[in-house]
């Protein structure tokens, strides 16, 4: 598959060389990181070095990072009734934006009748006035808003969300899984209380993630109980190799963030300029700040499943939006929340770029798109 072009980086990324090296080195270690002998201490050192690297990537203390099996588990850990900040009241309900990842939309450990949705604009940005209204209509809440949307790339005003939520006595969770490594993540600047991360979105391995808790957050109950691992916050022997690779990926992603973001934004502009040669093209969330690597687009009449297959046959790997639906191509709940009808919501195609994406890759993707667009136009003429 050497001739293929991979443009589905928001779904998952290849292993970074730094992560691959850390993973391979850790496989040869026999010790359990909870053991006190030399082998155990060696494994513990790898875990703690990785913890420091992940903490540095989001500007927190190492002891604030809790490793787990991935972003879905991290989100489930975060969405806990009873959380509070300092001397504040425990949260009794959950407010989630209408464009959240399914692992957040499911509500974690909150009962269904304690969960409410926050509206978004047609550009895919959280409606702050609606947030204020929903917060005023009940007891203290945990507010969950992602840092950037995985489908449109739209960057959310999390600092403003946090200020509003805190004024209402709430606690704030930010799913930063898609944003890490693409835009700067600073928990203090965001004023977030809990942040969730995932290794495989930044060049680490699948099956590793982290929950980050800001200082002063109380009431976080373990999702998995058993041993005293992760300072009693997540039971189970740590995935030493995966965690070590996560740390290596976090360090590399942070070091390369600025240069890579500029390069990706230039490539995205090249792609979108080529897209706009097609009549009636729609680029979702184009009017608002987005992740530098993400384009979600469609034209009226396009079927995402047909387009994804067409790109694939042309040697280009793309997505229909979120990749977390067991391989099914379904209408986007994100676009529905933004006010788009089913005809457009079921036709959106996502192109997401990464550190190895080249101008040649972009040009090949545009060539494949022009072929698909021409076929769509011919179909319209034949049915006219």
TrEMBL record:
Q: What's one Pfam family here?
A: Aminotran_5
Kindly list the cofactors needed: pyridoxal 5'-phosphate
Q: What is this protein called?
A: Cysteine desulfurase
Recorded GO terms, molecular function? cysteine desulfurase activity; iron-sulfur cluster binding; metal ion binding
**This protein's record includes keyword Transport:** no
Catalytic activity of the protein: (sulfur carrier)-H + L-cysteine = (sulfur carrier)-SH + L-alanine
Q: Which InterPro entries match?
A: Aminotrans_V_dom, Cysteine_dSase, PyrdxlP-dep_Trfase, PyrdxlP-dep_Trfase_major, PyrdxlP-dep_Trfase_small
Give all residue intervals belonging to the Aminotransferase class V domain: 5-363
Q: Which family does it belong to?
A: Belongs to the class-V pyridoxal-phosphate-dependent aminotransferase family. NifS/IscS subfamily.
Q: What does this protein do?
A: Catalyzes the removal of elemental sulfur atoms from cysteine to produce alanine. Seems to participate in the biosynthesis of the nitrogenase metalloclusters by providing the inorganic sulfur required for the Fe-S core formation.
**Keywords, A to Z?**
Iron, Iron-sulfur, Metal-binding, Pyridoxal phosphate, Transferase
């Amino acid at each position: 598959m050497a001739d293929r072009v991979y443009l589905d980086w928001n779904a998952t990324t290849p292993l970074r060389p730094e992560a691959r090296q850390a993973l391979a080195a850790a496989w040869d270690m026999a010790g359990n990181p909870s053991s006190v002998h030399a082998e155990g201490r060696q494994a513990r050192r790898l875990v703690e070095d990785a913890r420091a690297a992940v903490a540095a990537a989001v500007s927190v203390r190492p002891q604030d990072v809790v490793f787990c099996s991935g972003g879905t588990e991290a989100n489930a850990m975060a969405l806990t009734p009873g959380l509070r900040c300092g001397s504040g009241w425990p949260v009794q309900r959950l407010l989630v934006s209408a464009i959240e990842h399914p692992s957040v939309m499911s509500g974690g450990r909150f009962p269904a009748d304690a969960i409410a949705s926050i509206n978004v604009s047609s550009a895919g940005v959280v409606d702050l006035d609606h947030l204020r209204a929903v917060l005023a209509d009940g007891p203290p809440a945990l507010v969950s808003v992602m840092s950037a949307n995985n489908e449109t790339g739209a960057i959310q005003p999390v600092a403003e969300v946090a200020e509003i939520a805190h004024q209402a006595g709430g606690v704030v969770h930010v799913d930063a899984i898609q944003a890490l490594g693409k835009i700067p993540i600073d928990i203090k600047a965001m004023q977030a209380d809990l942040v969730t991360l995932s290794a495989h979105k930044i060049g680490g391995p699948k099956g590793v993630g982290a929950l980050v808790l800001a200082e002063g957050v109380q009431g976080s109950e373990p999702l998995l109980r058993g041993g005293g691992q992760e300072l009693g916050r997540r039971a189970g022997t740590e995935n030493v190799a995966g965690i070590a690779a996560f740390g290596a990926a976090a360090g590399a992603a942070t070091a390369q963030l600025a240069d890579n973001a500029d390069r990706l934004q230039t490539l995205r502009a090249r792609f979108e300029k080529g897209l706009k040669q097609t009549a009636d093209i729609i680029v979702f969330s184009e009017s608002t700040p987005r992740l530098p690597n993400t384009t979600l687009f469609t034209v009226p009449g396009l079927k995402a499943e047909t387009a994804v297959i067409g790109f694939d046959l042309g040697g280009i790997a793309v997505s229909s939006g979120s990749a977390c639906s067991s391989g099914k191509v379904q209408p986007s709940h994100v676009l529905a929340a933004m006010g788009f009808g089913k005809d457009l919501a079921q036709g959106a195609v996502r192109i997401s770029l990464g550190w190895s994406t080249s101008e040649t890759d972009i040009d090949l993707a545009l060539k494949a798109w022009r072929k698909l667009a021409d076929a769509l136009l011919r179909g319209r003429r034949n049915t006219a």
